[in-house]
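Lab notebook, bench 4. The sequencing result for the construct came back, and we need a structural model before the next group meeting so we can plan mutations. Quick request posted to the team channel:

Model the 3D structure of this chain.
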Amino acid sequence: MNITPLTDLLSGKNVNKYYKEYLNTQWYSVKEMREYQLIKLRKLICHCYNNVPYYKEYMDDRNI
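Done. Here's the predicted structure in token form:
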């Protein structure tokens, strides 16, 4: 039984999207997983830079 649509409804988040994504990524090779992780890390860093003043200042001060 797939309860992720119910989880989405109750949480207000798209759990099902991530569940499907992680079902696929569990079969990645080491190289594919490292590439996937790097993409996710870059997105996280961009999010932090754009949404958290502390990290924006920190990165700007260090020319990151």
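Residues 28 and 34 are 9 Å apart (CA to CA).
Will bring this to the meeting.
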